[in-house]
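Chain A, query sequence.
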Amino acid sequence: MVKTTFIALFSLVFVLHACTKEVHIDIPGYEAQVVVDGRIETGGFPIVLLSRSQDLYSPALLSAYVASFIADATVSVSDGTTTISLDYLAVSSLPIESQKTVAEMLRAELSDVQAVPLYVYSTTNPAMLGVVGKTYTLTIVDQGKTLSGSTTLAPPVALDTLSWIPESADSIYGYCNAKLTDPAGQNNAYKWEMKVITDTGNGPKDNIFRSSSSPYFSDQFFDGLTLEFNTYYSKKDTTYPSGFKRHFKLNDYVVIKMSRVDDAVYSYFERREAQNSSNGNPFATPVNIPSNISGALGIWAGISPWYDTLYCVP
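Chain A, predicted structure.
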C-alpha cells in the first residue's frame, strides 16, 4: 500500500513538472514624461513648474526631485492676441505675489519656498496679467516636442452670505458659514481657500492662502440651487484648546477666496486628491488623472477668484 501511494505521488509530481512552462515577460523600460504644474489667476502672472516624471523605483530624494526640473525648455503663453515668452527665474526673484502663488501651488510655507533653489517659468510683463473672459494657451517646446494646453478665466461667482457661527452661545471659537447660489446650466466648479490676517504682533497670522486636502467641488448635484455649507481653518492652531484647533477665534479677520475653475481643472485636482487619499492602498480603485496638456502630465489651470473678508463676531 505504501509503495503504491509513493508511486502515485511520484507520478503526480512528474506530471506537474512536465506541465510547467517557463514564462518570460518583457517589461518596458521606464520613459520619463514632462510634468506640468501651471497656473494663471485673474490679475496674476502665469507661473509654470516643469519637471520630468520619476521612475517608481528611483530613490525618493530631494536632490532627485530638484534634478528633475527642466531648465532648457521654450515656454510661452498666448491670450489669443498677444504671445509672451516665459523666462526661467528663481522664485526668490519673482514679485512677492507670485512667490506666494508658488507657495500655495506647492502647499508649502512662503519662507520655505524662498529658501530653496527653486526655479519656475514666469514673466513680469503686464501684458500677460490674467483677465477674466480670456482663454490662455500654454505652449512648451522640449527636446523637439511641442506640448500645449488651454484654460479659460471664467467670471467668478460671489457668495450670497458669509458669517461666523460660535460653537455655543458663550464660545470664543466658531466656524465659517457660507451660502452660494450656483448659476444654472454652466457646469461650474469651485476652489475654496482662506487666510487669517489677524495681527499676531509679528504680522498677520497667514501670509498665504491655505486650503483643505480637498478644496475643489463642482455643482454636479446642486446646479442652479443655493448651497449652504460650513468650513473650518485649514491648518491646526496648536495654541487652541483640544477640539477647537481648526476653529476661527472671536475677533479674527479671515480673507475668503472662492475661485471658479473649468471642468478640466476640477477633474484633474479632484482625481489627484482621490489618488493621494488612497495612500498606496493596494485595494483602492485605480485612478486615472486627466491632463489638459497634450503630450504631457499635469495641468494648466485658470483660476478666477472672488474675495471677501469675514470679521468673526456673532
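Residues 5-10, 12-16 have pLDDT under 50 and may be disordered. The CA atoms of residues 31 and 70 lie 15 Å apart.
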